[in-house]
Amino acid sequence: MKKIFIYDTTLRDGTQAEGISLSVMDKLKIADKLDSFGIGYVEGGWPGSNPKDMAFFEEARGKKYKNAKIAAFGSTRRAKVKVEDDDNIKKLLESKAPVNTIFGKSWLLHVHEVLGISPEQNLLMIGDSCAYLSDNGREVIFDAEHFFDGYKDNPSYALDALKIACKNGATTVVLCDTNGGTLTSEITEICLSVHKSLPKKVLLGIHCHNDGDMAVANSIAAIEAGAMHVQGTVNGFGERCGNANLCSIIPALELKLGINCVGKEKLARLKELSLFVDEIANQNPNKRLPYVGDSAFAHKGGMHVNAVNKNPETFEHTNPQFVGNKRRILVSDLSGRSNIMMKIAEHNIDLDEKSPEVAEILETLKRMENEGYEFEAADASFHLLAKKILKKHKPFFNLNGFRVIVEKRGKGEKCISEATVKLEAQGKNELTAAEGDGPINALDHALRKALIRFYPEISNVQLRDFKVRIIDGKDGTAAKTRVLIESSDGHKSWSTVGLSENIIEASWEALVDSMEYMLYEKNEKMKK
Amino acid sequence: MKKIFIYDTTLRDGTQAEGISLSVMDKLKIADKLDSFGIGYVEGGWPGSNPKDMAFFEEARGKKYKNAKIAAFGSTRRAKVKVEDDDNIKKLLESKAPVNTIFGKSWLLHVHEVLGISPEQNLLMIGDSCAYLSDNGREVIFDAEHFFDGYKDNPSYALDALKIACKNGATTVVLCDTNGGTLTSEITEICLSVHKSLPKKVLLGIHCHNDGDMAVANSIAAIEAGAMHVQGTVNGFGERCGNANLCSIIPALELKLGINCVGKEKLARLKELSLFVDEIANQNPNKRLPYVGDSAFAHKGGMHVNAVNKNPETFEHTNPQFVGNKRRILVSDLSGRSNIMMKIAEHNIDLDEKSPEVAEILETLKRMENEGYEFEAADASFHLLAKKILKKHKPFFNLNGFRVIVEKRGKGEKCISEATVKLEAQGKNELTAAEGDGPINALDHALRKALIRFYPEISNVQLRDFKVRIIDGKDGTAAKTRVLIESSDGHKSWSTVGLSENIIEASWEALVDSMEYMLYEKNEKMKK
């Protein structure tokens, strides 16, 4: 079986992304995770460019990695400096990383306009630098920067840059689409041709950026054309539009091309890896990411849901379990009866597909979504709605009203928010008030305060997320407002929705559903 | 020059995305925008699947589109129904859309397991349906669902499905990678082979999904292999991982393959189109989107910035202006200063780059944006801010306070909102109150009512749009809220921003800026 080497540059190229910054500790955690996932090379940083990167290598030296070789990144030596005197090269050796990846120019535009040297000088710099690091016992990977742009401009010079690296000890030469704009057909053609010209013992590698929205396809095309080494980042982090996403490349290799890179067992932890890296880098996970996103196997259209029910292969390009993901069925005005049935099954509600209640739930849902509700992301509200239609829900409390006052008494004065809530539970009335940071927060406090007397377990509930959407901004401030709330009791979380012309009333509705659902769940558990 | 037909399905396949739901008004707005951008086909929905989609076609009939033909989507007839009696086919004709796009099965797995009919029956259904719609004067586009999976399973049956559509009046047949998992190399090979087998007068089309992270590369590969019609969505909206992103496909065709689809002039409004659709669909723009994302031409690495300064081509695959985007230099004081200078120049404020006020504006702006303000979309607030720092602004009124009360007196009772505003203008005090649909609307009414006595021109101001964004939902309802308001006096419109933990206070801030800016502008004009 063909083996492809996976080279991760999340810790170096990934941190060039806008809004991503990793501490030394962050980098060490990610390196551990990549190693245990079975990644063969982990590029830790550019020791010559900043002290934080050097600190990573110092820490990493003390660690034992099972699968990963640690690579330090740098450039070929500067133009007028001997290789052994070049600071950047010295720092590479100082990092003591067993692998050194150095980039050099293969596009004459850069040789002339950025470096301002002759083509011959540039080739000497590549040769010198590879030879020196290789002589010092390092595994040398040569990253040919802007290779495709260079090749399209002057194929023989671009090839010369590779050849001099090979001659001087580089064991892998990597074709970089640095500006990320090369088309897949060009990648295929150029890689096929380069692959033929290289010495057999040297591995061909590929490094793509996503500026043309083709980084993954380009990486796979290069592998099909002979590349055996592929560089990328977890979740496609990277400068501008990002690097090729390893979370898409690895499953394509394993599941579609039958190429071993981390093995089936580790592949089943791909989603975990993706979420872990987002978490450390403080990024909101992108739901739509191929393979690993929350929506990657989420079915919404009624006909799709119906077919997936019969055979998942009909609308899934691969089995979500292979990458540690799972199938989800969404409910919306696009759904048919089968969505509702599957959803109802998820919620353990016993119901016959042909019963009139299913039609009633479906109709109610469509009408409400037409008004502006959205149940896709509000599972708890959906559950309560279904139970109410089935007349299987007895409310835990009755609301008799609320009042919210927001007041600013003078310039520079803090805004005061106060809420009053009146409700009835267990046959008793309760009227109470609370303050908060803003009207919704005050309302939340007052509602809890009123309920806690009857249901002390409410004290564990916390609001985790709060989203507001104006449904049709065209009507100015009288537009409808939809509020989505995510609540948690520390173990489980649930989401509810509210809708009104009045943001306070919409929030109120979602808050009330949230408390109601929590009490309902608790009650169900006690029944069992 | 080769011409490729762009077929947008944002309004149909795009709304299959998790979290995306469009009202009829939303759809009409997007259709207008797509038309003015030069898109050739706009698929409005599936009239047979829900009433909202039919309502779109009713409204769209009254409109004149310059570039777009409106297409209605549906399926081939059902198995045991005559084509003229099929509800879904009837609705297609009822929609009166000039183009009908119908999908049919081309994968035997689906024929057997989903439809449960014979391969011959399926072919008859395709033929019947195309013929009937074509005989009724419609332009018929046949979407061959799961074509690539079908072709890999049984090439001759998959081709038969296309051929019967061609024979029966379909003028375009579209190969759909419905499950989105096909590799680019397979797309190329299959499209080349299909292209040879089709009648010359029938156009080959391509419809890709992004489950393998290759939708854009696959669409381009199909075009290179002979497809002349390409389907996709703005920003890649769509079920699961989304559809092929037209915002990546169109510039690749125009700028890299020299193929005309919307023309250079319209292409320069691509970013505007992308943002417009995100806004209507209430999606946070993805910064990393190729071509149109805020980060797409953002340079962070020091060496890159340096090289781009010498020659942008060194690190940019295309000119950002071609797609209406711009270069950004990240983390650099110098770039900050030049941004401010550009912004100040836009606003016709006279100021020397080296003056201390520029530094002060820059600092204030950075501090405020760090808190959560955003001035990119709130030009009027930026203008007032700059004028205030330059001490060139004299306020038209002083605010002494406000109070908002929202009250719900009982179950089923309408929520009442009332606002009181206290202010001082032209040396006089004013205290007044007003009601409204919701707290912000009441506040808006009260503020206007108080000002109108001093500035009757306020009566012309209307709120046009109102947007709320929770900056960090993680703190629950105490998170910060940013409110953006767009106002208009019938001729001109302007936008203002407010930020607070309290949504009422944030709205108040934006409302006040809006009135202030209107009065300021009016005053400036009178000076001239």
Distance between the termini of chain A: 52 Å
Q: Report the total helices of chain A.
A: 18
Low-confidence blocks of residues of chain A: none
Kindly identify the CATH topology of the largest domain in chain A. Answer: TIM Barrel
Oligomer: homodimer
Account of the 3D structure:
The structure is a homodimer of 528-residue chains. By secondary structure, the first copy, chain A, is α/β, with parallel strands linked by helices. Chain A folds into three domains: 5-280, Aldolase class I (TIM Barrel, Alpha-Beta Barrel); 298-389, no CATH class; 398-527, 2-Layer Sandwich (Double Stranded RNA Binding Domain), CATH 3.30.160. Chain A contains 18 helices and 16 strands. Chain A has an eight-stranded parallel β-barrel, surrounded by nine helices. Chain A has a three-stranded antiparallel beta sheet with strand order 11-12-13, with helices on one face. In chain A, strand 7 (203-208), helix 9 (215-224) and strand 8 (229-232) form a beta-alpha-beta unit. In chain A, helix 8 (184-197) packs parallel to helix 9 (215-224). Chain A is elongated, with a radius of gyration of 29 Å. Chains A and B meet through helix 4, helix 8, helix 9, helix 10 and strand 9 of A and helix 4, helix 8, helix 9, helix 10 and strand 9 of B. Strand 11 (398-408) of chain A pairs antiparallel with strand 11 (398-408) of chain B.
